[in-house]
TrEMBL record:
Residues 123-303 form the Malic enzyme N-terminal domain. It comes from Cucurbita moschata. One of its GO terms (cellular component) is mitochondrion. Involved in the regulation of sugars and amino acids metabolisms during the night period. CDD domains: NAD_bind_1_malic_enz (cd05312). It catalyses: (S)-malate + NAD(+) = pyruvate + CO2 + NADH. This is Malic enzyme. The active site is at Y146 (proton donor), K217 (proton acceptor). The gene is LOC111432147. Its cofactor is Mn(2+); Mg(2+). Residues 313-581 form the Malic enzyme NAD-binding domain. InterPro entries: Aminoacid_DH-like_N_sf, Malic_enzyme_CS, Malic_N_dom, Malic_N_dom_sf, Malic_NAD-bd, Malic_OxRdtase, NAD(P)-bd_dom_sf. It comes from the Eukaryota.
Length: 626
């Protein structure tokens, strides 16, 4: 204060002198308004960065101006749109009122958002307790912190936003990212989940509000994989949005401009990757919910240089493979019969194409792993997108989908044609599996499900994998009521099992990449591998498939219960490490170097994984003045 008083006095003196010289001395109130750019005496604070945001006395949230953000090392720690305090109040009030509306006609669980808020407040106050609650009640709260509620959270994020969590890099930050990363308080970051918000679950472009999905995924990294919560970082790269509603919404938290594209877009993602790997060379970056157009390109661009993977393309593929192999076993057939399965896939985006590529490779491996095996495997798939069946006749065919375009001769024989509808395809092909990654709720209509009755499989399988719940291609009730008790059913978001009322239960499996990505991340981290190889991903998928017992698959249970996710993740991480050893990719982790790791038995690797999983326990605290 003393310092300020003398500074203020000398400033007044200088101002007075200036105005005397210009012959017009202003009133005292006018002079005061010159004292700071904000027009008030500043508060001297002894904090910077996140400590300010976490201090209710000084925090202004989204109202920090850009100059203040730079001055106080806050750049990147808040969403990019600077708001007035009036806008902040309006955002709060809109959200408050929305709660009443939601309680009347909101989602199937009208309390889901309220539960999310309570958990989020606990997360803000006490991380250890938050993760204790989440781990102990994972089955109950995964649907709140993850799909489906996380989708609703992202859709309502402008109202729900209180304290920032994670970092924001925007198109306005070009050239600044290398220094901005140092605004993050942690010297060690193990896991980053990054999104550009362009395709959040099946909800489309949610712009900067998509950060909720990165936060939700990292919650599972902590709960399932035991990644230390102080070493995770959710990231939003805000390159604008093409969502017209958000572009017009005065309460939107992101940049109100259309998405950057082409080289401008790439330059931003490149700069981000360079910045985070410069500060944290051993971090793993999970790309999440990027629109397909960029998902594949970015994966190809970075996968051989950086420790990264794309969850929607690669994580989903592994989970689908595990489920598809489970479905073969559920039919009472050996897994090696997988290449005989006829599979219709609805949806040819990042997830659908990721699954198709991995399933084709798995079949080809089983058939001898040569060119003819790869070609034979191709003919087991029929792909239907928004324009119907994809064939070689498709104009401007997407290059990622083209390997799965059916040959004209083949489809003529099958009584099909370019653009044939899903019902027609199912009627003619009589598939063993119908798999949906279309983001279109209810796509598997009564007619489609009726057509599946003609399946040549003893137990046809339906994977309605789109998220959140409202986007599921069909519900388990619809599937079981039309196709009977024998059908195998999996959905991306959780549904309740169906009670047939005759003592039998129709199992609703959750086919979601949450069973894989935590183990892929943990295994990669502990192996020290510099990249995430195809082999490591394959090992993760095979481990998940092998987790299910014969009895379980015969009962139609092809994925484990989420309550055992910590155990599954440990097994998957160990499988990933073993594959990294096999491929000579390990570089060690902390005190365990590569050579030591290479000598570990399977049991020792499992022990090593277990010992490196963080558990929420209060540490003893000691004060040290330095
Ligand atoms: N269960 C899981 O673990 C995962 C589920 N997903 C879900 O998959 C869905 C799709 O994700 P992306 O592939 O990234 O999206 P995307 O937008 O890239 O692809 C959607 C695809 O569906 C097609 N489509 C649209 N309408 C259709 C229709 N009427 N019939 C057939 N196909 C139609 C589009 O042409 C496009 O090929 C989302 O809902 C997402 O939540 C994604 C990743 C993991
Ligand atoms: C589960 C997931 O990653 C998605 O729906 O995009
Ligand atoms: Mg995703």
């Amino acid at each position: 204060m003393t310092k300020w008083n003398s500074l203020s006095a000398s400033l007044m003196k200088r101002l007075k002198l200036h105005y005397q010289m210009s012959n017009s001395i202003p009133a005292l109130s006018q002079v005061r308004s010159f004292t700071t750019s904000e027009g008030h005496r500043p508060a001297i604070i002894h904090k910077r960065s996140l400590d300010i945001l976490h201090d209710p006395w000084f925090n202004k949230g989204t109202a920090f101006t850009m100059t203040e953000r730079d001055r106080l090392d806050l750049r990147g720690l808040l969403p990019p749109n600077v708001m007035s305090s009036e806008q902040q109040i309006e955002r709060f009030m809109v959200d408050l009122k929305r709660l009443e509306v939601q309680a009347r006609d909101g989602p199937s669980d009208p309390n889901a958002l309220a539960k999310w808020r309570i958990l989020n407040r606990l997360h803000d106050r006490n991380e250890t307790m938050y993760y204790k609650v989440l781990i102990a009640h994972i089955e109950e709260y995964a649907p709140i912190v993850y799909t489906p509620t996380v989708g609703l959270v992202c859709q309502n994020y402008s109202g729900l936003f209180r304290r920032p969590r994670g970092m924001y890099f925007s198109a306005e930050d070009r050239g600044e990212m290398m220094s901005m990363v140092y605004n993050w308080p942690a010297d060690q970051v193990d896991m980053i989940v990054v999104t550009d918000g362009s395709r959040i679950l099946g909800l489309g472009d949610l712009g900067v509000h998509g950060i909720g999905i990165a936060i939700g995924k990292l919650d599972l990294y902590v709960a399932a994989a035991g990644i230390n919560p102080q070493r995770v970082l959710p990231v939003m790269i805000d390159v604008g949005t093409n969502n017209e509603k958000l572009l017009k919404d005065p309460l939107y938290l992101g940049l109100q401009q259309n998405r950057l594209d082409g080289d401008e877009y790439l330059a931003i993602i490149d700069e981000f990757m360079e910045a985070v790997f410069t500060r944290w060379p051993h971090v793993i970056v999970q790309f999440e919910d990027f629109q397909s157009k960029w998902a594949f390109k970015l994966l190809q661009r970075y996968r051989n240089t950086y420790r990264m993977f794309n969850d929607d393309v690669q994580g989903t593929a592994g989970v689908a493979i595990a489920g598809l192999l489970g479905a073969v076993r559920a039919q009472g057939r050996p897994m090696i019969d997988f290449p005989k399965q006829k599979i219709v896939v609805a949806g040819a985006g990042s997830a659908g194409i990721g699954v198709l590529n991995a399933a084709r490779k798995t079949m080809a491996r089983m058939l001898g792993n040569n060119e003819s095996a790869f070609e034979a495997a191709r003919s087991q798939f029929w792909v239907v997108d928004a324009q119907g069946l994809i064939t070689e006749e498709r104009e401007n065919i997407d290059q990622d989908a083209s390997p799965f375009a059916r040959k004209v001769k083949e489809i003529n024989r099958q009584g099909l044609r370019e653009g044939a509808s899903l019902v027609e395809v199912v009627q003619q092909v009589k598939p063993d599996v119908l798999l949906g990654l279309s983001a279109v709720g209810g796509l598997f209509t009564k007619e489609v499900l009726e057509a599946l009755k003609g399946s040549t499989a003893t137990r046809p399988a339906i994977f309605a994998m789109s998220n959140p719940t409202t986007n599921a291609e069909c519900t388990p009730e619809q599937a079981f009521s039309i196709l009977g008790e024998n059908v195998i059913f999996a959905s991306g978001s959780p549904f309740k099992d169906v009670d047939f009322g005759n003592g039998h239960i129709g199992h609703c499996n959750q086919g979601n990449n949450m069973y894989l990505f935590p183990g892929i991340g943990l295994g990669t981290l502990l192996s020290g591998a510099p990249i995430v190889s195809d082999g490591m991903l394959q090992a993760a998928a095979e481990c998940l498939a092998a987790y299910m017992t014969e009895d379980e698959v015969h009962e139609g249970i092809i994925y484990p219960s989420i309550s055992s996710i910590r155990d599954i993740t440990k097994e998957i991480a160990a499988a990933v490490i073993m594959e990294a050893i096999e491929e000579d990719l390990v570089e060690g982790y902390r005190g365990v170097d590569a050579r030591e790791l290479q000598k570990f038995s399977k049991e020792q690797i499992l022990e090593f994984v277990k010992n490196n999983m963080w558990s929420p326990e209060y540490p003893t605290l000691v004060y040290n003045q330095d």
